[in-house]
Amino acid sequence: MKHSINIALLAAVFIGMICLSARSEKNGREAAMGLSPALSVLERDLGKAIKKGDLVAVLDFIGPDGRTMPLCYYLAESLSVGLTREGGRRMIERRKINQVIIEKNLISGEISEPDAIEKIGQALGADWIVTGTIREAGESVRIEASIMDVSSGQKAGQSSALVYKSEVQSLMVSSPRPEPVNEASLPIPGGGELVIRVSFAAEVTDAADGNISRIIELTPGAVLHSGDRMKIRFSANRPCYVYVIQIGSTGSAGVLFPGQGEAASNYIQAGMEYALPPGTGWYTLDDHLGRESLYFLAAKEPIKDLSRLIGGLAKEDADKSALSNSISTELNKIFDTRAPGRAKPPIDVTGTAGYTERSIGGISQGPPLSLSGSSGKGRINPTIIKGDNIVARHVEFEHR
Predict the structure, then answer these.
(1) Bridge partners (DSSP) listed for residue 239
(2) Closest Cα to residue 117, out of 150, 159, 68?
(3) 252, 278 in Cβ contact below 8 A?
């Protein structure tokens, strides 16, 4: 019996030493966690200051070295929802925040300054402004956030969490900085509807001298020539996942958005306009002639099979031809499943075979959009697409 008691005492002492060691390690080195628990920590700490009926605005987080990345606005969107989920707190829509940033002529480096934060808060009529930063820390990422009382201009609380980098790697790919969209240019419906504004534009050559001469809307059956140029612009009323794919005349799939690389993210924020290619650039058509297709898809959640196929294209040993065929098949399946029988009647263009235009969601014409190219400025009418969980457009054109 005495021998058994001694063994039990030794076991208890050994377990106690392990617990003490573990506690010391935890105190000496902060443990990383998943993204979801990290958001819960930030919501808990920052939410202590917010009272029922208060109006809260969450600004985009600032990435490492000031870089823009999808994680910056993913965190802002998530906290906007989380901080106002209960207690009668109210959230300021992201598009309104972006609109104020336009009006105040603030650039990204200035938005984190206390004076700028206070100006934004006052213009929005907010009670609280939340800001944050993202820093890389080895195999982890540190997320820090603070909340400011707009009326006093003083910081009222702060929080931080260490997140496994593997959980957020796909959201940390640097992305082109989008431009804020004028509020009046994108109609915002009630409810949870997804609304996209998208424009397919082309700069075409003059048949007489072969020089770029004008900007046109890329409509079904439009005729383009090698050397002509294309540009795509799009914006959304809510955060979503966007896919822009070109199927060339040879059947090869070109992924225009997201960018190259398996980790490239296609998550976009609300109320911002994205340009493909970014800035003032345009795509130039190559010498492969024939019928080509542009696909634009936006969804509230990632389209898993399509994302998997796109990721496969980025691998060095990828069978590009087989993957292109699979991507085409998957795109057709999405349209056939989501919008069976929605293809418009074939459009007869200059006596050639019909060209297809398909859509998922309701289609209407948006206000004119001004574009600048080498031929000067032009105006085209973008397409507005409205739907529930996924919206899309497919346009065929002729490359001669």
Answers:
(1) none
(2) 150
(3) no
pLDDT value at residue 8: 47
DSSP string, 82-119: HHTSSTT-EE--HHHHHHHHHHTT--HHHHTSHHHHHH
User: What CA–CA distances, in Å, run from 193 to 38, 187, 229, 300, 357?
Assistant: 29, 11, 33, 10, 22
Which 3-state string (H, E, C) describes 216-240?
EECCCCCEECCCCEEEEEEEECCCE
* pTM of the full structure: 0.61
The rounded distance, in Å, linking the Cα atoms of 74 and 69 is 9
How does pLDDT run across 61-112, given as a tens digit for each residue? 888 877 777 788 788 888 888 888 777 888 887 767 777 766 665 544 455 5
pLDDT digits (tens, 9 = 90+) for 210-255: 565 788 888 888 888 888 888 899 988 888 889 999 998 888 888 8
Nearest to residue 365, comparing CAs of 384, 351, 352, 390? 384
One-letter amino acid identity for 257?
F
